[in-house]
Amino acid sequence: MISFHTEDVSFKLQDKIKHKQWLQAVAKEEQKKIGELNYVFCSDSYLLEINQNYLQHDTYTDIVTFDNSDDPKIIEGDIFISYDRILENAQKFGTEESELQRVMVHGLLHLCGYKDKAKADKDQMTNKENYYLAKR
């Protein structure tokens, strides 16, 4: 089950059913099943507080992903996305919709086991994002 929530922002995700179908297709192609997955769209300040309190990072970010799964084949987690970062990045890199979808799939890919700290990992993550965005 995929759920969408908002905290501290005025945002309403359009085409929720299409987003759910797309995300489920990504999980299936990655040979995973979605158990309980929550997307929480929030403000920069809300996400900064999460970043500080849970990860001890004092920086703004576009996404924080928490993996709650006990089974490596089942995706369960909470993905917090800064809507403020989406809007800012959309001005630099593309449309609001494309940036939103990129960050949404980025979080899902983290829950599939992909990393993005090392350059090779980041390149692989970006390639995966581009691949799944093209399939959308």
TrEMBL record:
It is an enzyme of class 3 (hydrolase). Keywords: Cytoplasm, Endonuclease, Hydrolase, Metal-binding, Nuclease, Ribosome biogenesis, rRNA processing, Zinc. Its cofactor is Zn(2+). Pfam families: YbeY (PF02130). Binds 1 zinc ion. HAMAP family: Endoribonucl_YbeY. This is Endoribonuclease YbeY. It comes from Aquirufa echingensis. The lineage of its organism: Bacteria, Pseudomonadati, Bacteroidota, Cytophagia, Cytophagales. The gene is ybeY.
